[in-house]
């Protein structure tokens, strides 16, 4: 398990996971399992998106501007109004035109319906970005440092769950040429918005 997944999993125990399960209409066990897949999925996609200098700078700018980690200080309040976290925009930028495929695959892996899987990703995305923001501040990371940190997180995810990372790679390789870099370059222009 990578550092960010571990941090968020610990913080999302108890009441927080109950709030998520109520919002999704599933049991706490299903919600917890789904969070355990959604967070590494987001981290791996962010790692891939930030693997180019342009993508790394876009992510660094977004984290510096909008994600200082304060969302983690009052999780229950955030989860009660998660729409305030701009998760839909984050998920759209992270996955680009593959968002629907990622949501369907997450639904299939977790037993959620596609709508609930999308809602879960939108709820988790601001938390992942907040965890990145907090890590960036604590470690004094610049764009390259943030990219390297995410690369390490992705490698840890790949070691712990190679099938999950493989699924993401297949989903993001929209033209099926074996490389996601060309697919991600299309997304990078609008990465993380303004």
What does this structure look like?
With 194 residues, the protein is mainly alpha-helical. It has one domain. 75% of the residues lie in helices and 0% in strands. The chain has eleven helices and no strands. The protein has helices spanning 3-11, 15-24, 28-49, 53-66, 75-80, 87-95, 99-110, 114-139, 143-160, 162-172, 181-188. The longest helix is centred in the middle third of the chain and has 26 residues, at 114-139. It is globular, with a radius of gyration of 15 Å. The N and C termini lie far apart (32 Å). Residues 174-194 have low confidence and may be disordered.
Multimeric state: single chain
Largest sheet: none
Task: Kindly name the structural category.
Answer: mainly alpha
How many domains make up the coordinates? 1
Helix residue percentage: over 70%
Tell me the radius of gyration.
15 Å
Q: Please provide the count of β strands.
A: 0
Strand content: under 5%
- Spell out the helices and strands N to C: HHHHHHHHHHH
Mean pLDDT: 84
Q: What would the principal axes of the Cα set say about the shape?
A: globular
Distance between the termini: 32 Å
Low-confidence region ranges:
174-194
Tally of alpha and pi helices:
11
């Amino acid at each position: 398990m990578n550092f960010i997944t571990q941090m968020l999993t610990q913080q999302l125990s108890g009441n927080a996971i109950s709030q998520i399960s109520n919002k999704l209409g599933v049991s706490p066990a299903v919600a917890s399992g789904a969070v355990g897949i959604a967070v590494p999925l987001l981290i791996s996609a962010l790692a891939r998106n930030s693997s180019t200098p342009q993508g790394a700078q876009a992510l660094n700018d977004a984290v510096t501007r909008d994600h200082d980690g304060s969302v983690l200080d009052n999780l229950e309040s955030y989860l009660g109004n998660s729409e305030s976290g701009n998760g839909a925009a984050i998920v759209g930028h992270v996955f680009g035109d593959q968002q629907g495929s990622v949501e369907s695959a997450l639904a299939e892996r977790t037993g959620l319906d596609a709508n609930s899987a999308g809602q879960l990703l939108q709820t988790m995305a601001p938390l992942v970005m907040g965890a990145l923001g907090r890590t960036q501040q604590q470690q004094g990371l610049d764009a390259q440092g943030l990219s390297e940190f995410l690369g390490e997180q992705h490698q840890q995810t790949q070691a712990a769950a190679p099938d999950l990372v493989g699924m993401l790679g297949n989903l993001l390789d929209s033209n099926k040429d074996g490389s996601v870099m060309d697919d991600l370059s299309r997304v990078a222009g609008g990465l993380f918005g303004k």
